[in-house]
Amino acid sequence: MSRAEFLEGLKGGIPVGLAAAPFGALFGALARDQGMSLGELTLMSGTVYAGASQMVGIDLFGHNVQAWLIVLSILAVNFRHVLYSAAIARYIKHFSAVQKFFTFFLLVDPQFAETIKRHESGKPVTFSWYIGFAAVIYIPWVVVSLIGGLLGSFIGDPKAIGLDILLPVYFLGIVMGFRTRDNFLPVVAVSAVASAIAYRYVGSPWHVSIGALAGVALAAMLPPIKANRKPDIAHESHEV
Known about the structure:
Layout: H1 3-33, H2 38-47, H3 51-61, H4 67-78, H5 80-88, H6 97-105, H7 109-120, H8 127-155, H9 166-176, H10 184-201, H11 206-221, H12 225-228, H13 233-239
């Protein structure tokens, strides 16, 4: 393992870890409010490790929903991670089986985004960099979830002070990070419309996966914009 690449990953992940901390605290506070023990909420953060899914899970726990439906609902929210895994698979072919296990377990939204950006910038996606970036997000997430559970009674109702808006803003920031990619606007628009329609007629949390699949389907059908651009005149003249 390269120490330099590991430290580079740690450095790059620090801003993400700090940005994710409020979500971890919010989850801890909400989990305690729903009756979960400190051990239970910490275990959930350490094993599920997905903010949106954890929020869905504790909401369903509070309504005495059957276990299979909770698992299915969390799978619906996290289905996008299947797409994430497929997208980065070609970048991690050189990883060992054990390394791939940890890679996919730690594959959250910002990890996926940074992995794609790193590859597109021409830098190698190494396990040293990947685990460094992931560690500085995962460990604080679990710790801050516990702290949120401990201090939840001091926060009161998170919705009353607007903390519930943090998660949508967070995801919006990730989406906007890809705004320069080909066909960004039509893909996002179709995803948003499909998700809204699904939310109205199918319900939550299925609208998340349906919106994602609609966007993926459109992206697969649309040709890259660069492929439709006319060759550069100066380049043609040079070739002649």
